[in-house]
Amino acid sequence: MERVLVLNGPNLGRLGVREPEIYGSASMADLRESATTWGSALDLAVDVRQTDDESELVGWLHEAVDARAHVVLNPAAFTHYSYAVRDAAAQVTTSGLLLVEVHLSNPAAREAFRSHSVVGAVATGTVAGFGFDSYRLALEAVAARLRGTRA
């Protein structure tokens, strides 16, 4: 079973109470349960984590490289400016692992500053705008790539 780290950046620990009109009413605990279930059905061992700390997120990306784990990453606000997260994400993909950038909302349809991702250019792909289904679609894409098919 392939391992996938589902990593979430700042403020996503507030899912369910933070701007539910944008991010929905489900919580991080709900995401953890859903992603684990989806992963299991796809023969993926999923580990869901969330941090508000940029250095912790970078450390988890390093861990993914060292452990040979694929990554589904919602960098949240770090998407737009964190070159530290971008460089750590690049290490994932240049080591031959998959990294799918995920967003609950569609950043391109929101404030102008959200339209640029420093992570997107080093990601295997990006899924955005489908709420929690963005994570399901990302996990399905990882599983398809690992099977040698296209998602």
Strand order of the largest sheet: 2-1-3-4-5
Would you report the number of β strands?
Answer: 5
Low-confidence stretches: none
What portion of residues belong to β-strands? 15-25%
The average pLDDT value, as a whole number, equals 91
Major beta-sheet overview: 5 strands, parallel
Structural domain tally = 1
Distance between the termini: 19 Å
Helix content class: 25-40%
Structure keywords:
single chain; 151 residues; alpha/beta; Rossmann fold; five-stranded parallel β-sheet; 5 strands; globular
Structure description:
By secondary structure, the chain is α/β, with parallel strands linked by helices. It has one domain (2-150): 3-Layer(aba) Sandwich (Rossmann fold), CATH 3.40.50.9100. The chain has five helices and five strands. Strands 2-1-3-4-5 form a five-stranded parallel beta sheet, sandwiched between helices. α4 links the parallel β3 (70-74) and β4 (99-103). α2 (28-41) runs parallel beside α5 (133-147) and α3 (54-67) packs parallel to α4. The longest helix has 15 residues, at 133-147. The protein is globular and about 35 Å long.
